[in-house]
Design brief:
The complex is a heterodimer.
Chain A: H1 3-14, H2 16-48, H3 52-85
Helix pairs in contact in A: 2-3
Chain B: H1 9-12, H2 16-36, H3 38-62, H4 67-76, H5 80-94, H6 97-109, H7 115-128, H8 131-140, H9 146-160, H10 165-197, H11 207-225, H12 228-240, H13 246-268, H14 273-295, H15 297-311, H16 318-337, H17 341-351, H18 367-370, H19 373-398, H20 403-406, H21 412-418, H22 427-449, H23 455-488, H24 494-520, H25 524-528, H26 531-553, H27 559-586, H28 592-600, H29 605-618
Helix pairs in contact in B: 2-3, 3-10, 5-7, 6-7, 6-13, 6-14, 7-14, 7-16, 8-12, 8-16, 9-10, 10-12, 11-12, 11-13, 12-13, 12-16, 13-14, 13-16, 14-16, 14-17, 15-16, 19-22, 19-23, 21-24, 22-23, 23-27, 24-26, 24-27, 26-27, 26-29
Classes of the chains: A mainly alpha, B mainly alpha.
Chain lengths: 92, 624
Amino acid sequence: MNIQKLLEKAESFLNADERKRKEKRKHLKHVIKKLKKHEKSLVNQLDSEVDPAIRDELEKEITLAHAHRKKGLKVLKQLKKDKKSLPQSIEI
Amino acid sequence: MVRKAAPLSAHAHKDPVFKKITLPAIFAILAYGFWVSPDFKEIAAGVAIFLFGMLSLEEGFKAFIGGVLERLLRRTTDKLWKSLSFGVVSTTLMQSSSLVSVITISFLSAGLIPLLAGVGIIFGANLGTTTGAWLVAGFGLKVNISAYAMPMLVFGILLIFQKSKGLKGWGYILSGLGFLFLGIHYMKEGFEAFKDTIDLTAYAVEGYPGVFLFALIGLAATVVMQSSHATLVLIITALAARQITYENALALAIGSNIGTTITAIIGSLGSNVDGRRLAGAHLIFNLVTAIVAIGMIYQLTHWVGVLSAWLGIQNDDYALKLAVFHTVFNLLGILLMLPFINIMVRFLQRVIKPRVRSIAQPRHLHAATIELPDAAIEAVRLETLHLYDNASSIIAAGLSLHLSEILSGRPIDEIVAKARKPMTFDIDENYNESVKELYGEIVRFISRAQSTMSPEQSEELFVLRAAGRDIVEAIKDTKHLHKNLSYYMVSENEEIRKEYDQIRSSLATVLRKLDEVRQQGSDSSTILSLDALKVAMREYDRDLDKRLNTLIRDDLISAAMSISLMNDSGYAYDVTKSLVRMGEAFFSTGEINVREAERSIALDKGEIDEVLQQSDNSKPNSKP
């Protein structure tokens, strides 16, 4: 590891905003992953369901889960963008 | 071990007359002692510096009591041996059994750990605290520790001046250790100088009278100093300076072990029933251990001598032998009490019963939880759920339905169709009785708890407080709805009756779904599925608009009815919105960061409309 990389690592460790942003990203990713799993299980349920009323309910739930995931990805993207606009000073 | 006075109700239990006399008496005795002997002054200053170091150390560790400790506690307290180990390790690391008991009582009061785990931790902490004696006797007396104290203090204070909470915490820990070392140094010096003028061993009492007398002195000293650690250091330094006999030192150590439970009892006064049971367990443990130790003191002294020789401790190194004794008798206590731990827990549950409370009184807001952010947040969450329980009964009655029926598995439409009689129910009176005061208590607790929190934790409390307000808003909207609903649900006009029944069904479904999500737990997808209620309500609102046109055009309802219906559907929508927002904030039991992530992707009004649009488009018969 060269000195530049080491400095960058030290900076990201000491910069409270950057640490907070990383934490947020980590947890958001965790929630999105859960939503993806949930959406997949709903799709599987829908495939094997024949009752039209239940199918209708499942479709609604899938649309909702998809909308949550989409919003989650949008927030995640925004957090990535925020990294570039963060102040570069070291905060001790 | 050091205890800071517990806030809130703990103060209310202290006797003011006793307090008024005690403090001036202690001041007078100390002042006389300082006047008579400069060496006594040095020893007392050593104790004061030592205690200040303990406070600083506790302050430092508090900076690190965040999610990490909560996760660790939850993970390490599912089995008794884990709770015991947690108690031993955490007390050894933090060198403060007081902090460990405060944390345990807080987490117990907030319902984060069960009583058995709490008792296990306290047993472990009793053993962990004996490492202090080893450190002082083995290290503190052998080297010039004041040389270590100086740089620690300088670096510690420099770190305290830093902005970062973590660095500040390390600063308090470092300076705390510095003060501890400095305190030990002064005690050591004081006793060394003391022996040139007075020989305290002249006051030694032999045999069992001596054992009882010195055990009492140890107990009193610990109660006054609120720290068994300080008493023990005092005993060790005095013993090293040959100012007390070895036998009397052992009795003092036994007494200080009993004295330490007094501080635990004071701490438990501000906690709930489990906190008081834990203090009971602590008292039983230390009393039984002390009785056994006093009864077998000569046999124990013999075994300690044998063990010390085996460990290579010199026969005249009484300080280290005292450390061995302290460990042996606490270990003996654990071995004696461990087989009976379940019986003891059952006994305490039978003897110490919860105070009878009305539904409006807080159940989870205790003084013991206010100092620890995680426990305080959990207490607020649980108390607001209690508030919701009270509120949901009012909301159900506002719909002229019984909550128990709504939460039964029967179809909602059937329940609504059968409940035809409007309930005569004063929402205002019920709100004042079971919600208003409780919400006031929650808000008061939040404002007090916020002072020790990080920005993220304060933000979480802000969200919880806002969600509590949502509950209150939902009741107010139900109140507006109640009058027309009671009137139209028995109307002769079938159309308006149907419309109001639909409002009742929709809100009953909201209450049922909220209960289901609450029972199912903390999965993010379950919590976010509450947004489906917002979609359903929006869909209802939109369909009502279409239906209203037909109803008015075909003269099926009057203009007055249509206006009432429009207003009341608006109230129903607001009740749903408030309750869903509340559910999203309270039903998630995950970490703060996960909860924050869930909230950041909950859908707003525009996004709900988009989902509705997409659902319409996906229907086979939908029009473009």
